[in-house]
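=== Given protein ===
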Amino acid sequence: MDLMPRSSTRRPSARPSRRRPLTLLVAAFAVASLALTGCASGGSGDGSGSAASADSAAADARVALEALSPASGSLTGGAEVTVAGSGFAGDSPVASVRFGTETAPAFTVVDDRTLTVVTPASVDYAVGAVPVTVALEDGSEVVLDGGFGYEVQTPVDSQLNYAFTYWKDYNLAEWGQFPDNDCGNFVNQAMLARGWVQDENWYSEYATTGDYSYSWIRGNEMDAYYASRPDTTRLELTQRDQVKLGDVVMFDWDPQNDNGVDHTMIVSKVTPNLDGTIAIKLVGHTVDAQYRDLDTAITVENPGGTAHFWSIA
């Protein structure tokens, strides 16, 4: 069981929406070019390689991607970008837009030369350029290589990029590792990456002098420190619809014992389900995880457990 240290006294992170396009504009030159080149390809004898190449060529013949504006954005996504190109209002509608491997949560075909797209989060909140792919309903696709660059632009970007860098490969040189349970140490490191500043009530020099505040590592004291800050708001499980990326969860595995916080993690993913419920995933140490499921943690793994959140402004 992943238990935070406790004192005997309580001392001071759906299918895309879209508008269907209108008419297909066929590029005569591209069609003629395909006719001249025939079916020659390096595909397998069963024709699967040829079919994939044909789909790509078909999309290229009808749809072109030129540029995105802006061409870079936050690791956590959620920004609207404009895709310039041609052929978006064809007779095979745009089915989806992907940034790397991640599908955009929403897009709109504005006209034949313009798409607006809401960016998804980057994979594991990593920095870097990714291809942008527009897929048509007939299965064909067109790709703009390196079309969008993910950057650290916000405090939450910094927090989650740090968390996903060190969730498994601990930052021992700077922070060390607390024996048996490192969850508070990890969450608080990520809060520093987000922009919080250590003070006399909340600090760690464990890797150098061995000194630290109880609010850095002990569950109840850490909970009390978060409650004392002006930029945090406590949310209960019933308020999970208000939880957002980068918020902090405090677990109590055995509330019947009235002994307080056992474990802490950072919200790494919030997903509205089709049935109206909200799935929350978590990144953290002790049980090292990038996307630990909140509900599984308090039911299957720790039956009868409960949790609350600290929403970070």
User: Anything to note?
Assistant: The first strand starts at residue 64 and ends at 69. The domain at 28-151 is CATH 2.60.40.10 (Immunoglobulin-like). The chain has two domains: 28-151, 155-312. The chain is about 25% helix and 30% strand.
